Amino acid sequence: ARLLAREVVRGYHLARPFNNGTHVADVSALVAHLLANPWSGFDAVVLGARGQIRVRDAIERLAAGLEVKAIVEETPPAKPSFTLCSDRAVARWGYDPPEIGALIDRYAADVLAWQRGN
Q1: For residue 97, with 0-12 CB atoms within 10 Å meaning exposed, 13-18 middle and 19 or more buried, which class applies?
Q2: What is the pLDDT of residues 22-70, one digit of tens each?
Q3: What are phi and psi of 11, to 5 degrees?
Q4: How far apart are CA 102 and CA 117, in angstroms?
């Protein structure tokens, strides 16, 4: 929302790796796969994107996809930096995570399409 409003985006750990995201279509595909292949019990898995991108690069890539200029301001970190590991979801349940750059591009396209009423 800040990018679209041409406001400053404040972030921390701008030089650290980021992969914390997935697309609803990818989560839905995983759920459909699980529902088609019955299992019992409990299993907790992490769902994130494949690969990594620096936080600053993620913001700038999203801005480019939204056809705006990113104005980024670094702030002191509120939490430690981390990335997600989806290996268990991939190996055990067939999760096919999107590549982080492609995910950001897809999200930007989804936002623009929604804004334009497509």
Answers
A1: buried
A2: 999 999 999 999 889 888 889 899 999 999 999 999 999 999 999 999 9
A3: -150, 165
A4: 22
Count of CB atoms situated within 10 Å of the CB of 79: 7
113 burial level (CB within 10 Å; 0-12, 13-18, 19+): exposed
The residues pairing with 73 across neighbouring beta strands, listed in sequence order, are 10
pTM of the model: 0.89
The number of beta carbons lying within 10 Å of the beta carbon of residue 7 is: 10
DSSP string, 97-108: PPBHHHHHHHHH
Alpha-carbon gap, residue 110 to 104, rounded angstroms: 10
For residues 86 and 30, what is the distance between their CA atoms, to the nearest angstrom? 12
